[in-house]
Amino acid sequence: MSSLTQLGITYGVGSTAVFAWVINFLAVDDYSRRVRNVATSGLVETVLESPDVLVSWTIPALQVGADYEQWATFYRWAAAGGQFAFAPCYPASPKIYNATLDDKAFMPKRAGWMRYSLDCTIRIVPDGAAPADVGEVMHAFWGLA
Q: Is the pLDDT of residue 1 over 50?
């Protein structure tokens, strides 16, 4: 299996999960933190507060008895607001970002007998390890960084 298809997530007290066969990987800027201020003079000011980087992907085949339980355990922990380390090309790339889960629940879709598909979205924490832009995350995922 190519390391280009694997994501690594470290959460809790040293729990590491490696997830393979990721498709539809995408990193985008979330400009939802746009603040408008209207002064008493009528002047409208718009401030963009550090746009977050959202990363999403699909895992098309979670197997019951393997990845399914690993994802369910991770979601239970992360949905409570836990911050985790995210490696977009595990273990090939040295890029590791702190992130939080943007999804609110573990909602896999049936994909076959004992197989499920899962769409996941995370938010990169704007700290010292945050990427300069979404291109950095995409380069790390494809093994170019």
A: no
